[in-house]
Amino acid sequence: MKKFIDNYNVDQKEKLIELFAIKSNVESKDELLSKIECDLKALHYIKSDFFEKVKEREEVATTAYGNLIAVPHPVTPSAKKSFIYIVKLDKPIQWGDKDVQLVFCLGLKSQTTVDMEPIFKRISHIINDFSLVVELLNQPNEKDLKETYFDIY
């Protein structure tokens, strides 16, 4: 994630695209990543090698941080647009040695000017406060998930 912050340029304003989804009947990490990849490709937000780089990152170290949260992202910026895709699952899945039910997929384009610090602070705050995770997981639809996410921090 540090590499992404280093690309920040205070002279330009770029808006981070924030997407929200609730997914049901997902049985594995690979199935979830495949569904996320399909969604992002349909929106034309990622380059063709985006998920290869996400998998490379997972081989280095898991992006499952505990408290039911994973933050998958590629080893190097390979998105066409900078985004965060927040996905709530109806039930936890196995992600390495941890259970995951809330995913914050980060994608940044090369040389992004998005200020990621507030996003990292919010995600860190959520990871470290399980009551916030539960609050997000209790949201019944994407609209409420989005509103609750923006109310945090």
Written description of the protein model:
The chain is an alpha/beta fold and 153 residues long. The protein has 6 helices and 5 strands; from the N terminus they run αβααββββααα. It has helices at 2-6, 29-42, 50-60, 117-127, 130-137, 142-151, and strands at 17-23, 64-66, 68-70, 83-95, 98-107. The protein has a 5-stranded mixed β-sheet, covered by helices on one side. A hairpin with a 1-residue loop joins β2 (64-66) and β3. The protein is globular. Mean pLDDT is 91; it is low at 1-10.
Question: What is the strand and helix layout of this fold?
Answer:
Elements: H1 2-6, E1 17-23, H2 29-42, H3 50-60, E2 64-66, E3 68-70, E4 83-95, E5 98-107, H4 117-127, H5 130-137, H6 142-151
Parallel strand pairs: 1-4, 3-5
Antiparallel strand pairs: 2-3, 4-5
Number of continuous helical runs = 6
Low-confidence stretches: 1-10
* Class derived from helix and strand content: alpha/beta
Q: Radius of gyration from the CA trace?
A: 15 Å
Largest sheet: 5 strands, mixed
Number of strands: 5
For the biggest β-sheet, the strand order reads: 1-4-5-3-2
The average pLDDT score comes to 91
* Proportion of residues in extended strands: 15-25%
Helical percentage = 25-40%
How far apart are the termini? 20 Å
In short:
The chain is of the alpha/beta class and 153 residues long. It is built from 6 helices and 5 strands.
